[in-house]
Every structure is written in C-alpha cells, then in structure tokens.
Amino acid sequence: MAKILLVDDNEINLMMTEMVLSEMHYEVETATSGEAAIELLQQNQYDLMLLDIIMDGMSGIETLARVRDMTEISGIRTIFLTSSSQAADMTEAIRLGAMDFIRKPALPEKLVAAVQRALLEQEKDKILAVDDDEMSLMTVETLFGIRYDVRCASSGAEALAEMEKEKPDLVLLDLRMPGMDGLEVLERIRDMEGCEDLPVVFLTADRDPGTEAALFTAGATEFLGKPLVMQVAMHRIRRILEHKHLRDSLHDEVNRKARAFQESNRKISSLSDQIIRALSGAIDAKDYSANGHSVRVAEYARELARRLGKSAEELEKIYNAALLHDVGKIAIPSAIINKPGKLTGDEYAIVKNHSLKGYEILAPISEMPELAAVARWHHERYDGAGYPDGKAGEDIPEIARIICVADCYDAMSSDRIYRKALPQSKIREELEQNKGAQFDPKVAEAMLQMMDEDRDFKLRGNKGK
Ligand SMILES: [Fe+2]
Questions:
Q1: Residue 173 contacts residue 219 (beta carbons within 8 Å)
Q2: How far does the centroid of ligand 1 lie from the alpha carbon of residue 402, in Å?
Q3: pLDDT attached to residue 357
Q4: Strands (E), 104-213
Q5: From the CA of 354, how far away is ligand 1's center (Å)?
Q6: What CATH number should be reported for the domain holding residue 135?
C-alpha cells in the first residue's frame, strides 16, 4: 500500500487527516514542520506528500521549494492542503509542481479522491506546445514545466516532425502562425495514425465564435484564451488529460478483454481440433486395414471443397467432418471390418450400419451438426440408391456429397486387405460413369480435374499406381 507523508503544524488537522487516510489503508507518517518533513523525506521513501501551505516557521511553499532543490528527494509527488485562497501561493505552488490542492477542512471523499488520483499519475504527461511566439512558448514552459513534460515547437511543420518521433499526450496549439496555421496543423494531426482522439487545445487571443466553431468541427478539444490565466489553464489541462487517461485505460481494457476472448476461442478451437483428430485416430486404429483412410479423405474433401469455391470456414468444417465420417466403425466388430475376404450378406449389413452408429455417436455434438450429418449420409447416392435413408440429389447435404466422392476415391485408390488399389485410369472411368448416379456430377467433375492436375502424383504417392 502507498506510503504517504502528511505535513501539518496543526495537530488536530494532522490527526483527522491521518485517520481518514489510515481508514483507506494507506501507510501514513506525519511531520509537524517543513524541517521535520525534509528530514523524513531524506530517510524514507514516500509515494506522496500532503503538505500544509501555512505553517509556523517554514511554510509549505518554502518547504517544497527546498525539496525541489535537493536532487535525491526532488521528485516527490505533492498535494497542498490549504485554507489559503491567495492567488500568489497557488501560482507558486503550481510552479513548484504541486499535483493538486485540497481545501481545509478536507472532506474525506475529496481527500481520498485527490490522493488516489495523484498516486495513479505515474509518469509526467507530455505536452507539445506549438507557437511561433517565443515568449508564449516560454510562458507555457514555465507554467506547465514542473507538472508536465513540455516540448516546444515554433512552427506547425516542426510540431508534426516532433510528433512523428514521439506522440505527446496533449498538444497546445497556437491558432495564428505564419506558414501552416493552427487549423491546418490540427487537420494534419487528425490524419496521423493513433492521433484521431489526441487532445488538441488551442491558444487564441481573439475568441471569435465562427473560428471556434470551425475548429471544433475540425476536431479541436478545447480553447484557452491568451494571455493564459494560470489556474484556469492548469485546471482545464488536468481535466482533459484525466479524461484522456480514462478513455485510454478503457480502450486498453476493451483490447485486453478482446485479446483474452480471442485466446480463449483459439484454445477452444484447438481443443476441438485435437479431440477430433484423436477420435479420427481411434477410427483408423480400429479399421487398420484402411491405413490412414480418414486423414486422406479429409485432405481430398477439403481440396474438392476449395475447388467448389467454399469459404475458409467451410473448408475447416468439411475437413473435420471428413475425419470423423466413419466414426460408426468403432461400433462394428473388428473381425468384420478387417476381414480379408469377401463379406457375407449379414456382415455387409452390419458394416452398412456404421453410418447410423456414427450419427448416434456424433449427434450430441450440437455445435457441429455437420459431423453427425456426414456420418449418416456419406453413403447416400445422388440417384437415391444409397443408404441408410435413400436420400437423393440436393436432399443429401452438399458436405456429405463432397465427402462421398473423396471417400470413394480413396477407397478405390488405396490397397485394401482384400484387393490392390485400382489404376488411376480405372478410377477415372468409375467417376465418369457414376457422375449423376452415385456421385454429385459437380463434385465428381472437380475430382476428375483434381486427378488431371495432379502432376506431382501426390494423389498416388502413398498408394497404388
Ligand atoms: Fe463409410
């Protein structure tokens, strides 16, 4: 928890403020004079100092002035506690880099809010001041220099070059400048990447409503009249920067949440891919005579779908559904699936049942209904003579029609336990003959094209000639 040094020569005030801050679980140490405060600062590390302005002996202002001169403790963040409304004190306090003022007696909620705000403010905000008048730039630097990291540019072009190197948190921009005027600089800033919402505050000597309206339309954030009134300017700038930080942190939070959401989606998607692959491995382990059939069918089906103009998302669905198209074989006795010879009528009936078994296994996966659909209908024929439902033509889901062709191509082109792979010319013939009978003609055509274009023999690489 943050450590706060509380400096006040009035013991009652000291006690009351300490009580409020301790309630908020801050670690508080106290000093009743400027001298004692400096001594404590030299001995300990504090995150923040609350400093009374009017004290017997060394005043708060004098104390801070001395602190700022002592290199090792000069950076202490300071809030003034004051009952004084003297403008001179305020001006000097700002010049010394006070972060805030709390009027005494301090309302607990205001005290806590100011402390929280000061503790949150980690780094000095960067202000880019743009003015062709050197005196104006000096005034801005003097006014804001301790509280903010002020950079100066004496023309629009110089300002834009500076911004290319490093983006400030706020731009203070003179309207009337020779060459590029303030309006043009603003327009150029708004065109820069990441500067669409950057606060741009105009410094104007003449506050003409028409000009202000035009500048607001072009994206100006605020106006400050020249000559600058210190307290007003400080207040406005601080408010604008607080707003910017709030918006930035909201933006960061939204981005963080979006990234976490994407990551969680990626994990879920990767997990389902892994489960599908594992299950597909289980099918191939059971149907070992088919020797990697599921993965090959998935590869062919995806390529067919790509040729048929399907989207990336559809290609992934088709690939996964093809991996699991024969999942029902898990429920069929291994002796039948891997039987070396011809199947009997009864055995064939049992094997055919794998499509319904597969459907039953995959139907509970309601987020991917295509898995169950493919398991059930990949043995349907375009002419309606397939199984298990005798569906025909477009009644068979397209994904199942695609996988059916990929499945048959692999069955024909692979060595099986009961026969050798068919030659490509024979497969070609089969596909041609069965266009519109067993196969959807469009899909069969795509398969034929794929075979024709297979110049590197990829389709024949691990199987029969
Ligand atoms: Fe099958």
A1: no
A2: 13
A3: 97
A4: 126-130, 149-153, 170-174, 200-204
A5: 7
A6: 3.40.50.2300
Say how many C-beta atoms besides its own lie within 10 A of residue 452's C-beta: 9
What is the residue range of 228's domain? Answer: 126-239
Asked if residue 251 is part of any domain, the answer here is: no
Cα of 382 vs centre of ligand 1, distance in Å, is: 16
Domain end residue (candidates: 89, 120, 151): 120
Nearest to 323 by CA among 272, 357, 366, 367: 272
DSSP run (H or E) holding 3? strand 3-7
Taking the centre of ligand 1 as the mean of its atom positions, its distance from the CA of residue 327, in whole angstroms, is 8
Please give the average per-residue pLDDT across 38-49, as a whole number.
92
Q: Is residue 255 part of a domain?
A: no
**Distance between CA atoms of residues 426 and 434, nearest Å:** 12
Strand partners, 203: 174, 224
Residue with tokens 């000061």: 118
Tokens of 428: 């070609």
Q: Is a pLDDT exceeding 70 seen at residue 463?
A: no
Q: Taking a C-beta distance cutoff of 8 angstroms, is the pair 338, 417 a contact?
A: yes
Which of 104, 120, 136 is the last residue in one of the domains? Answer: 120
Q: Do 33 and 96 sit in the same domain of this protein?
A: yes
Q: Which residue reads 């070059």 in tokens?
A: 161
pLDDT (tens digit, 9 = 90+) per residue, 289-321?
777 899 999 999 999 999 999 999 999 999 999
Helix or strand run (H / E) with residue 256: helix 230-286
Q: Can you tell me which residue has the tokens 């003015």?
A: 131
pLDDT band at 66 (very low <50, low <70, confident <90, very high): very high
Query: If you measure from the C-alpha of residue 424 to the centroid of ligand 1, how many angstroms do you get, rounded to a whole number?
Result: 21
pLDDT of residue 88: 66
Do 456 and 315 fall within a single domain?
A: yes
Q: Which residues contact 189 (CB under 8 A, 6 or more apart)?
A: 160, 163, 171, 195, 198, 200
CATH code assigned at 438: 1.10.3210.10
Q: How far is the CA of 456 from the centre of ligand 1 (A)?
A: 28
User: Are 73 and 192 contained in the same domain?
Assistant: no
Number of domains the chain contains: 3
Beta bridge partner(s), residue 126 = 149
3-state secondary structure string, 228-253?
Answer: CCHHHHHHHHHHHHHHHHHHHHHHHH
* Residues β-bridged to residue 30: 6
